[in-house]
Amino acid sequence: MAFTFITGLFDRAGAVLLIVAFLLGFLVFPPLAMLDQIHYVGIAVALFVLGRTIPPEWVAQKLAWLPRYETGAVAALRILTGAALVTAAFNEKLLAPELGRAFLAEYPHFNFMRSVFGLAWFTDDLFVTAAGITEATIGVLLITGVLTRVVILGMWVPFNLTVPLLPPVELLGHLPIFGIMYLLLLYGSGIPPRAAARLLEPAVKGEVEEARRRLSG
Question: What is the pTM of this model?
């Protein structure tokens, strides 16, 4: 899957595999833990509908219905990302602050209000609560689609402040969120009309070479 997403080759096949992997995760992990990662379903939906791969003519004809769902795909990514943030805010912070405290006990510098800004009164408990409220608020705003670009710009502050403080495993887990942030900043709550059609229609008509030139241009 990583190969298809990085290279853009067979990205729709990779999107299908990502959804299958997510569903299989319910066999291994608790449901709430999987809901924390539901933004991966949004990524898969967006990649499947907006995929950059120019398919063979016979495949393009079967995918000719995709352009009707461009706006819905971006909305699904936005809503599912918001749902993942809200779930994580409650599961890992607001309803289970001990998880946040344990993380800060191992990585005390992550409380940047104290380590970066020198606010000694900003305790770990206060940081966990503030982080949970912030994360939940961002999630709700993404779900509603209100001022999406403004919300994304607001996300950049806490998310980018903590990048240098993240341990490697946590940083890898945040990379998809950064990718989603950049896409939603570009598209907001919508998407330029017929973005997928510009790639699929030439292929449907057999003009694969022309489509490739459009893509490379």
Answer: 0.80
